Amino acid sequence: MSAEERHHEIITLVRTQGYVSNEELAQRLNVAVQTIRRDVNLLARRGLVARHHGGAGLASSVENIAYSERQVLNRRAKEAIGHLAARQIPDNSSLFVSIGTTTEAFAKALRRHKALRVITNNLHVATPLSAQTDFQVIVTGGLVRFYDGGITGSTASTFIEQYRTDFAVIGISGIEEDGTLLDFDADEISVAQAMMRNARRVYLLADQTKFGRRPMGRLGHLSHVHGFFTDRQPSERICALLREHDVELHIA
Q1: What CATH number is given to the structural domain containing 33?
Q2: Which residues constitute the domain of residue 148?
Q3: Taking a C-beta distance cutoff of 8 angstroms, is the pair 97, 118 a contact?
Q4: pLDDT of 140-199, one tens digit each?
Q5: Taking a C-beta distance cutoff of 8 angstroms, is the pair 216, 184 a contact?
Q6: pLDDT per residue as tens digits for the range 7-26
Q7: Do 108 and 35 sit in the same domain of this protein?
Q8: In what residue span(s) does the HTH deoR-type domain sit (predicted)?
Q9: Integer Cα distance of 110 and 136 in angstroms
């Protein structure tokens, strides 16, 4: 079992049981306790689990992973998701793009497109796309967050309401088994909701680390999107929800 597979199993067990001791993890995964301690320390630094004395528990529901950690976390999967989603965007389209490291990967994958009109509250989306001479990039007003280049606040939400686009491409911090979409920041949620309301099609981009995370802010539900792009087959319950609401599933 590779380290990546082991990490996935640890996260799954923690989300299922709430807390798992290092000894139980070592026994289940057939590795030394010292290996599990290193794994748990790494996952805790990334915000995917909470490290407790002798084991691992659920990560915080009130504080997101640091932006610098999110940039490198599951980077290859995010790039694959971004490229897959970009292929669904035709030239000469208009789109909203929200805050998130996966949406940033998506934006970078748009560089071969022609004549796009992009409205975003993410400076890390606007900056690379603004170099495209036939793109029109519009940045919302609002408060720029120093730590991730996101733009939030009522000004940003009001700005979004002035437009109607072909697509909204949205990131998320957590997806519960009942399909609830969750995030940490209330202002960021308001802007993303405005994008979803004012787009003809909504695409959700989320890698497998978002399944089971439990931020406390409710953004919406999987039934509110038209396409879901991820890097691993979701649970059968999630797949049933997607089928029930005719949401297209795309796995990178």
Answers
A1: 1.10.10.10
A2: 68-251
A3: yes
A4: 999 999 989 999 999 999 999 999 999 999 999 989 989 999 999 999 999 999 999 999
A5: yes
A6: 989 988 887 776 788 999 99
A7: no
A8: 3-58
A9: 13
Q: Are residues 39 and 125 in the same domain?
A: no
Cross-sheet strand order for the sheet of 49-52? 19-21, 55-58, 49-52
Q: Which of 209, 185, 210, 181 is nearest to 196 (CA)?
A: 181
Residue 51 falls inside a structural domain: yes
Q: Is residue 63 part of a domain?
A: no
Contacting residues for 106 by C-beta, under 8 A, at least 6 apart: 81, 82, 85, 86, 97, 169, 205
Selection from 79, 9, 76 nearest residue 49 by Cα: 9
Helix (H, G, I), strand (E, B) or coil at 231: coil
**Residue 157 shares a structural domain with residue 242:** yes
Q: Is the dihedral of CA 180, 186, 188, 192 positive or negative?
A: positive
Domain total for the chain?
2
Tell whether 184 and 237 lie within a shared domain.
Answer: yes
DSSP per position, 25-44:
HHHHHTS-HHHHHHHHHHHH
pTM score of the predicted model: 0.79
Nearest to 230 by CA among 181, 164, 191, 160: 181
